[in-house]
Amino acid sequence: PAASASKINGLSQYRGQRVKVYGWVHRLRRQGKNMMFVVLRDGTGYLQCILSDNLCKTYEALLLTTESSVRIFGTLKEVPEGKSAPGGHELDADYWEIVGRSPAGGVDNVLNVESNSDVMYQNRHLWIRGENMSKILKVRHATIKAFRDHYYDRDYVEVTPPTMVQCQVEGGSTLFKFDYFGEEAYLTQSSQLYLETCIPALGNVYCIAQSYRAESSHTRRHLSEFTHIEGELPFITFDQLLEALEDLVCDTAQRIMDSKYGQLVLDLHPEFKVPQRPFKRMDYREAIAYCKEHDIKKEDGTYFEFGDDIPEAPERKMTDMIGEPILLCRFPKAMKAFYMQPDLADPIVTESVDLLLPNVGEIIGGSMRIYDEKELYAGFKREGISPDNYYWYVDQRKYGTTPHGGYGLGLERYLMWLLNSNNVRETCLYPRTADRCKP
Ligand code: 4AD
Ligand code: MG
Questions:
Q1: 274 C-alpha to center of ligand 1: Å?
Q2: Is the CB of 342 inside a 6 Å radius of any atom of ligand 1?
Q3: Nearest atom within ligand 1 for CA of residue 355
Q4: Among 103-117, 144-158, 415-429, which stretch is predicted with the lowest mean pLDDT?
Q5: Which ligand 1 atom lies nearest to the CA of residue 406?
Q6: DSSP tag of 109
Q7: Residue 343 and residue 362: Cα distance in Å, rounded?
Q8: Which of 47, 137, 227, 267 is the most buried (most CB within 10 A)?
Q9: Cα-to-centroid distance, 279 and ligand 1 (Å)
Q10: In angstroms, what is the span from residue 344 Cα to ligand 1's centroid?
Q11: Ligand having the closest approach to the CA of 171
């Protein structure tokens, strides 16, 4: 008789006892005819199992391949220090059976060190079984919890806005359109407009939802579907918005490092350190000047001028040169979305901010919102947006308007920073890009 099936990460309490474990054959090594070492994986951890004598001479044992699923019974033995075994123990098996076979060679015939990235992503469902990818997905899990806990402790209310919508937020060029029972609708680019409508009901609010962008550009940090963490706060000033961003990034990173998943972050990114507050503040105007002073140029070889969008590559160059988080503030009105509040001291720019982090560049975009109804109509006009579908958003300005602001953070980009990864596709379960919608 054996204890009921145990998960690998909870085995220590059964040392010296007979246990039953389920899992997948992660690694397999045969030593002579009488010994087989199986590293078993069950998602919670890895366990070395020793199959000796008759146990490794059966037909199933001779044909056993990695990635097969198995059930193993045996006695859990402590392994002396110095001999490496995950968890400090190994299973001396006395009985085992196959649950599901796997083809010869396991997944190594499909994926190996020689596979190019297209093959890797084509087989992402098998790739995620690997050690690094499963670490990334676990850190992603811990990160989502860290954000929820951060907001919960600060009394933000979580809402779940719809993702099938009839309003654009971030410009018409990246909208995914579809037919909604005969009406034109879109996959949402951002839940911001809905969050704004919630603040009179709930105060500070946030959501964690999928956003969609029809981005045809191939970069290290653009997906067509990403996980968007957005917050909206009533009765704040622009400076308070900046402080909320510092708090968000530092507190969530600290929570992840303090959690049981902190070690996985260090496994993947040994130099990671929770950043220090306050972050460097830099106006867009200063960034234009910085680029000139440091010879960071446009693709055509000329210098950036006021009004130019600083694209990904030069933005990262600047971020990496400065080497610390930057709150890049006050972008020109002409290059930003219809809803952004102008800076009263300098109305050609807006109270807007991007948070730039080393290795990635922009991970957050935020702003104060126009709260005057007439000004909002002027914004629609400037962007060529018909206000009809936005009646509910305009009502926000009619029924008790207030200064307010908020932001959106791309989870995959945050993870790219946290884990020093070189592409957002790696920090996402099944990435959607212009050239891939499968698996
Ligand atoms: O800067 P963005 O476009 O801002 C908004 O959508 C605002 N409406 C958010 C708000 O104020 N509530 O997007 C916000 C963040 C970016 O900084 C980036 O991290 C991420 O969302 N993001 C993307 N991540 C991956 N792939 C893409 N195509 C992304 N587009 C934006
Ligand atoms: Mg942005």
A1: 22
A2: no
A3: 17
A4: 103-117
A5: 11
A6: G
A7: 21
A8: 47
A9: 20
A10: 25
A11: 1
Give the count of alpha carbons within 13 A of 280, CB side only: 15
Q: Which residue from 420, 410, 439 is spatially nearest to 215, judged by alpha carbons?
A: 410
Q: Closest residue (by CA) to atom 23 of ligand 1?
A: 410
Does residue 1 carry a pLDDT above 80?
no
Q: CA 33, CA 53: separation in Å to the nearest integer? A: 8
The tokens describing 384, both together, are 């060529």
Identify which of 104, 86, 13 has the alpha carbon closest to the alpha carbon of residue 47.
86
Give tens-digit pLDDT for 93-147.
999 999 999 998 888 888 988 899 999 999 999 999 999 999 999 999 999 999 9
> Could you tell me the two tokens for 395?
């009502």
**The pLDDT of residue 323:** 94
Which of 222, 309, 315, 413 is the best mutation target for the ligand 1 pocket, counting ligand atoms within 8 Å of the beta carbon and taking the most?
A: 413
Find out whether the beta carbon of 431 lies less than 6 Å from any atom of ligand 1. no
- Contact predicate 38/25, CB 8 Å: yes
Taking CA atoms only, the protein residue closest to ligand 1 atom 20 is 410
Return d(Cα 121, Cα 423) in angstroms, integer.
12
| Residue 65: other Cβ atoms inside 10 A | 16
Q: Which two tokens stand for residue 44?
A: 């919670």
CA-to-CA distance for 343 and 336, rounded, in angstroms?
13
Name the DSSP class of 267: H
Atom 18 (ligand 1) nearest CA: 410
pLDDT value, residue 49: 97
361 lines ligand 1 (CB under 6 A): no
Tokens read off for 262: 């902190």
| φ/ψ of residue 67, rounded to 5 | 75, -5
Q: Is the CB of 406 under 6 A from ligand 1?
A: yes
187 - beta bridge partners?
A: 164, 176
Q: What is the pTM of this model?
A: 0.97
Query: Using CA atoms, how far apart are residues 71 and 43, in angstroms rounded to an integer?
Result: 15
Query: Do 79 and 92 touch, CB atoms closer than 8 A?
Result: no
The per-residue DSSP string of 153-179 comes to: HTTPEE----SEES--SS-GGGPEEEE
Q: What is the CA radius of gyration of the chain?
A: 26
Q: Whose CA is nearest to atom 29 of ligand 1?
A: 222
Measured from the Cα of 414, ligand 1's closest atom is: 19
Our CA dihedral for 165, 235, 199, 410, rounded to 10 degrees, sits at 50
**Cβ-proximal residues to 13 (8 Å cutoff; 6+ apart), any chain:** none
Please provide the distance, in angstroms rounded to a whole number, between the alpha carbons at the two ends of the chain: 42
411 C-alpha to ligand 1 centroid (Å): 10
Tell me how crowded residue 9 is: count the other CB atoms within 10 A of its CB. Answer: 15
